Amino acid sequence: GCDASILLDGSGTEKGYDLIDQAKAALESKCPGVVSCADIIVVATRDAVVLGGGTQYTYAVQTGRRDGNISLASDATRNLPGDSFSASQATDAFRAKGLSASDMVLLLGGHTVGLTHCSFILNRLYNYNGSGKPDPAMDPAFVTMLKSRCPQTSTVDNTVLLDHGNPTTVDNSYYEQLLARRGVLTVDQNIASDAATNATVRALAGGSSSFPALFGGAMVRRMGGIQVLTGTQGQIRKSCRVVLWFGSSFCHL
Ligand SMILES: *[C@@H]1O[C@H](CO)[C@@H](O)[C@H](O)[C@H]1NC(C)=O
Ligand SMILES: *[C@@H]1O[C@H](CO)[C@@H](O)[C@H](O)[C@H]1NC(C)=O
Ligand SMILES: *[C@@H]1O[C@H](CO)[C@@H](O)[C@H](O)[C@H]1NC(C)=O
């Protein structure tokens, strides 16, 4: 999302977020054509983290990104680590973008707030690896609780919290939950059990590594710098939902 491709409307694009549109409209009315949607995402993400976790989570962000003109759901599927990845597959996916295993563990800590859909975890609850049983890595009481939220035959794809400790607060409870075998996605639980990442998870859960101090660093140093467009690359969109075209050609403002 570093070029704001996640904001473009259209069939098969990556996604759309209304709040970002409001921020963009406010900026365009004061200062047209200057602040990219990509920068708005980065600043808004930092502000959301601070609103959810407090000022100890604040971090300085770099700006000057420009917006991309392509958004393909298939790119997100291809580039993002899958919900069922092993810790080493997830590490490889982050490494391919220049991020380390500890960056990955820190960034997955973003699951301290937010939701997933039942469809991503039904296999863990009912038929793990075709066994007809739940994933043995999940606390059985937690399985029971999630099953009530995610009935096997439901026609509605309910949402479930990713962090059942302090679900609306940005904090290290995600890692505590992993140690209690209450990770929701397979990849969450895997980082707590894999020998290459479990020490990092344990240190963040126990507080010997400070999640507030380290999270922003992983966001800025690494994630916020992946494939950024600058200079005359890309464009500054007028609306975050649509690529700006000039005549029949792409407009470089
Ligand atoms: C489930 O299947 C995955 C992928 O084949 C494998 O890596 C994992 O060890 C299996 N887990 C269990 C508990 O059988
Ligand atoms: C990490 O996992 C390995 C292998 O399961 C285990 O030997 C080790 O004690 C664990 N380390 C921590 C810090 O949990
Ligand atoms: C979209 O942006 C890329 C990267 O800035 C550029 O190379 C490409 O020419 C643009 N596409 C169009 C159709 O303008």
UniProtKB/TrEMBL annotation:
**Names of required cofactors:** heme b; Ca(2+)
Q: How is the cofactor bound?
A: Binds 1 heme b (iron(II)-protoporphyrin IX) group per subunit. Binds 2 calcium ions per subunit.
Instruction: Name the UniProt key words of this record, in alphabetical order.
Output: Calcium, Disulfide bond, Heme, Hydrogen peroxide, Iron, Metal-binding, Oxidoreductase, Peroxidase, Secreted, Signal
Positions bound to heme b: 111
Q: Which Pfam families match?
A: peroxidase (PF00141)
From the UniProt record, which GO molecular function terms apply? heme binding; lactoperoxidase activity; metal ion binding; peroxidase activity
Detail which positions bind substrate: 81
The entry's function note states: Removal of H(2)O(2), oxidation of toxic reductants, biosynthesis and degradation of lignin, suberization, auxin catabolism, response to environmental stresses such as wounding, pathogen attack and oxidative stress. These functions might be dependent on each isozyme/isoform in each plant tissue.
Report the enzyme's class at the first EC level: oxidoreductase
Q: What is the recorded name of this protein? A: peroxidase
* Residues that, per the record, bind Ca(2+) 2: 112, 163, 171
Reaction(s) catalysed by this chain's protein = 2 a phenolic donor + H2O2 = 2 a phenolic radical donor + 2 H2O
Q: Which residues bind Ca(2+) 1?
A: 1, 3, 5
One BP term from GO: response to stress
Q: List the disulfide bonds.
A: 37-240, 118-150
Highest taxon, organism lineage: Eukaryota
Matching PROSITE patterns: PEROXIDASE_1, PEROXIDASE_4
What CDD domains does the annotation carry?
secretory_peroxidase
Q: Name one GO cellular component term.
A: plant-type cell wall
* EC annotation from Swiss-Prot or TrEMBL: 1.11.1.7
The record's comment on protein family reads:
Belongs to the peroxidase family. Ascorbate peroxidase subfamily.
User: Which positions fall inside the Plant heme peroxidase family profile domain?
Assistant: 1-244
